[in-house]
Every structure is written in C-alpha cells, then in structure tokens.
Amino acid sequence: MTLKHFAVMAGLWLCVATGAQAQTGSHAGHGHDTPPEPTPASAAAKAEAWAEGEIRKIDLKTGKVTLKHGYIPNLDMPPMTMIFGISDKQVLSQFKVGDKVRFKAVDENGQLKVTEMVVR
To answer: Closest Cα partner for 85 from 112, 61, 117, 104?
Structure first.
C-alpha cells in the first residue's frame, strides 16, 4: 500500500468513525428537523392545554365568539383572530367584549368550538 492509499484509507476511517459517533447522539446537527415522537404524557398535556385570547365579539343568537388568540397547542394553530362556535351558548352571557380569557378549543368535524372558557 502506498502512502497515498494509506492517507485515503485513514481519511475514510475517520469519516466512518465520526459519522457513527454522530448517529449515537441527538439528531441535532445533521440535518434532521423532525421533532421527536410525542410521548403519551406530552400528547395528553397538549390535548389539555389552555390557550389565551381576548374577546372581540360575542353573538349570543348564533352562539359564536370572536377571539384574538395566541397559539392553540392542541390544534397547532398560530395566533390570529377568528370566530369559534361554543359548546354551551348560555356561557357566553357571562363574558363581555374586551375580556381577556383562557380557553380550550377543539375541531369537531371541521368546526372549531370552544369547550371551556374562563376570564384570566
């Protein structure tokens, strides 16, 4: 084996050794940006997560509320202002425009509904 072949072999060995070492660590640093699979505990926490928002409009007749909201974890929804149905129309009479609220929302067959809401 010539010195040139030896250098190439040593370089290949170094690449293989450092590549194997990187694979035993975390995925950070080698191009993967896939988040880890949620554990049952984190999935349950996400489903139970409360979002925060501000009431912009209340329609007692239709049972809808317009919320300017922050991130909604269980729906993976970014902050925005939108209209939600509400599971119990009677609950809306307890709130007024401008109230800062915490709420839980769900997607029921494509319809977004607030299932719980409290003034914060």
So the answer is: 112
Domain ranges of the chain: 1-31, 46-119
pTM over 0.70: no
Superfamily of domain 46-119: Copper binding periplasmic protein CusF (2.40.50.320)
Beta strands in the chain (DSSP E): 51-59, 64-69, 80-86, 100-108, 111-119
Q: Please, what's the b/e burial string for 52-74 (b: 16 or more CB within 10 A of its CB; e: otherwise)? A: bbbbeebeeeebbbbbebeebeb
At 12, is the secondary structure helix, strand, or coil? Answer: helix
At 44, which amino acid appears? Answer: A
Looking at residue 33, its pLDDT comes to 54
Q: What is the pLDDT of residue 49?
A: 86
